[in-house]
Design goal:
73 residues, mainly alpha, 41% helix, elongated
Length: 73
């Protein structure tokens, strides 16, 4: 796995490719980022829609004797 000791740093060099970062995202990273943002916006929109639909429903009126599962006498 290791290709040898680097004399200048005293550390072992890996046989894997060196990562070069130029300060920009790759096109694949932009696509993944866009998908993640769309999923978050879509999920929040769906939750907001469901909350509006649930809030707009009319619930039947409850009387004090019908609130829980008490036995009627």
């Amino acid at each position: 796995m290791f290709s040898g000791l680097n004399e200048s740093t005293g550390l072992y060099r890996s046989s894997l490719a060196e990562v070069v970062y130029n300060g920009e995202l790759s096109p694949v990273a932009y696509i993944i980022l866009a998908c993640a943002i769309l999923i978050m916006i879509g999920g929040l929109g769906w939750c907001f829609y469901r909350a509006l639909m649930a809030g707009g429903r009319e619930a039947p009126q409850q009387h004090p004797d019908e609130v829980g599962d008490e036995r009627k006498q």
